[in-house]
Every structure is written in structure tokens, then in C-alpha cells.
Amino acid sequence: MAGSRSATGQHVRRLVAITAASAGEQNFLGARWVPVVLAATPQRLRTDAALRLLALSPHYFAPGQRIRHSEAERNRQTRQVLADEVLARYLHPDDDVLDVGCGPGYLAAAVAPRVHSVTAVDVSRGVLACARILNPAPNLEYRTVDEFTRTQRDVDVVYSFAVVQHLTDEVFARALRDWHAALRPGGLLILHVVVDDPQWRTEAQWRADRGLVGRVKFRFGLNCFGRTAEQVRGLAAAAGFGELELVPMATVVDVDDDVARQHLLLARRMDVALSGDALAHGKRAAGSVPAQPRTRPVPGGPAAEQADPAELSPT
Ligand SMILES: C[S@@+](CC[C@H](N)C(=O)[O-])C[C@H]1O[C@@H](n2cnc3c(N)ncnc32)[C@H](O)[C@@H]1O
């Protein structure tokens, strides 16, 4: 009895801490005090403080000192595998890339040595502060999504892992349009997605759940939505992406992570008008202009050089 009371007490304390560290819906660790506390923490204690804070968000590690450190190590290793065996197929040393929903930055740091620059963005200021401590690199910048948008910087590749399933259709559709705008013509979008998995409730099913637990989870918990392949293709096409390929992750990589059982969406920024029918089927309209090859500035030159059209299939 005393044990269950103390377990309940722990649960309540954790919930209070999670709520205090959040900044509104689905922005865990976004509270303004999180970066302030980290900045005030002595240098030698910062790594542990960052991991402790990450354990307050349902996105990252479980609480408990040993679990926290082993989870962080597992994260580092799996993100290194994803960078080496998945993303490396599509990246070039002179690419500028955008990592969306970077979280603690393990993937961004693994990608950084392979490219010219990485801008890693997240909605949460707190997680970005943790990422700057845990995963710095000379060519890697951490920014909020809004800060990145204000820079109007463009990139060759946008990628995102373990993020899209947390977005409502409305937020996902807006994000796709933003990524399209951030990509240079012909630029590549690489998204980890969860599709056609009956174990995942769809957004419509969550919204239809009028029970108290369902409503509280939807409103305050970490949102996780399943989608069909058709929906994902349709949303990407509607945002102006084409050459869509949906690939089972297991055909590309063997990694100790949930993503191994899920999919990879590869899509290219198309600068063409799409017909309504093509949008509905996630295809480019017949007779439309082919995708632009990437354009890269010539160092010291006034015009842009046209590079080889990059193939979507791994090289
Ligand atoms: C599970 S973590 C994934 C971290 C990292 N991509 C990885 O694979 O290790 C999901 C991250 O997405 C961020 N996120 C959620 N909604 C977002 C949005 N609309 N735009 C950018 N980031 C978002 C969360 O704050 C969180 O840090």
C-alpha cells in the first residue's frame, strides 16, 4: 500500500515536472526556464543536466540515471547507423541540409561530417538547448523552426526522423509547404513515416474518442498518429512534391529502433503545376515539366551551375 502510494506520488511529481517544462500543446521542454537553467548549470554538470531534462519529455529518455545514460548511448548509436546507412546514400559533401524535429541532435551530429552545413530545427527551445550541449559540431546550427523561417535560408535536402507521426494532418500539410519553400529547385525530402500499421490509431480515431482518458491523452499526451500510404503521398503531392517513393526502412537498414519497422518517403521538390487528379494520386501531371536539376552557386561566379540531376534511388 505504502509502495503504491509512493509510486503514485512519483507519477504525480513527474507529471507536474513535465507540465512545468512544456510550452503548450506538443511542445515538451519548450518552457523558457529550461535553457536558462542549463546556462546557469556549471559546465561539468551540463551533460547530466541535459539528460535529466530530456527525461522529462515523453519524446526522449525514460527517467532513472542508468536508463537515461544507456538510452542516450543507444540514441547516439542508432542515429549514427541512420546517418551512415540511410541518409549517406542521398547526401553530397557540398549539401546544405535541414534536420526537422532534431530533438537532442544525435542524428544532426552524425550527419554533419558528411555535408557542408546542417541546420537542425525543433519547436522546443529546451530540447535545442540540450542539443547544443550534447551534440555540437562546427558546421551545425540549432534553431527554432520560426528562427529558421525568418532567415529565409534555402537548402538542398530536408530530412526528418521520428517526427511526422506526432503531427496532425493540418500541421503536417503546413510543414510540407514550408519544407518545399526551403528546398532549392529539385531538392530532396527524406521523411521517416509510419504508414498502414493497424496498431496505430489515426488522427480521426483519436478525435472521435470522447472518453475522458482518450481526450486527456489527445490534449496533453504525446500525439502519435497512423496514416495510410495514400494519405502521405497525397499530402506530399499537394505541397508540390513529386517523384514520390515509399520504401520499407527494413530494405535499407537494420537498426535497433522502431523506425526499422516503418517507412521512408523520398520526394523531390517539383516546380510544376499539378492537376487535381494528379494531386489526389500523388503523381505528377502527364506532360508537366520535369523536375529541375539542383542548382548550385559557382564559387566566385555570377550564375548558378547546373549539377547532374540527382537520382532518387540510392547511389
Ligand atoms: C521523437 S523526437 C525525434 C528526434 C530526432 N529527429 C531523432 O530521430 O532522434 C521528435 C521531435 O520533434 C519535435 N517536433 C514536434 N513537432 C514539431 C514541428 N511541428 N516542427 C519541428 N519539430 C517538431 C519535438 O519537439 C521532438 O524534439
UniProtKB/TrEMBL annotation:
Residues 97-187 form the Methyltransferase domain. GO terms for molecular function: methyltransferase activity. GO terms for biological process: methylation. Gene3D superfamilies: Vaccinia Virus protein VP39 (3.40.50.150). This is Methyltransferase domain-containing protein. Keywords: Methyltransferase, Transferase. The keyword ATP-binding does not apply. SUPFAM superfamilies: S-adenosyl-L-methionine-dependent methyltransferases (SSF53335). CDD domains: AdoMet_MTases (cd02440).
